[in-house]
Every structure is written in structure tokens, then in C-alpha cells.
# Entry
Amino acid sequence: MTRGNQRDLARDKAAKKAADLQKSKSAAEKEGNKGLSLEARKQRYAHITHPLNILVLILSHCNRRDADLMREKQKLKDLKAAEAAAKK
# Structure
């Protein structure tokens, strides 16, 4: 009798245990946050969730024609330039 099923069950159990340990870690202990303060984590999250950055992420994952993609990139560049000029 082979023990393939037992191996699979043990593998699943170990994966679940590892996932539970990862869930129980605090934000400061997680790999992506090591060495970052609360303010640094908030700033990183704000940068990721900025509307222009979300648009860039969406556009980078779409299967669109190159010309359309270049137009969108140019619009983003113009928006960023306008924001930079407004800050001055």
C-alpha cells in the first residue's frame, strides 16, 4: 500500500500551519515590512493606492494595442508634469 495520500495530507497540514503562523505575525514582523516604521508603511501604501499609480498598474496588465498604451502613458506624463508645475 502506498502512502501518497498520507503525504498529501501531511503536506496540506504543514502548509495550513505555516499560513496560520504568517497570519499571527504583526505588521512589523512581516517580511515586506521589516525595518519600516508605521509612518513609512502608511506612506508606501498611500503611494501604491494613488489613482495614477493604479491606472499605470491597470494599463500595464491590459492587452491593448501599443498605440493606445503610448497615448495613455503620454497622458499620465502630462498629468504628472501639470501636478509638478502646480506644486511650484
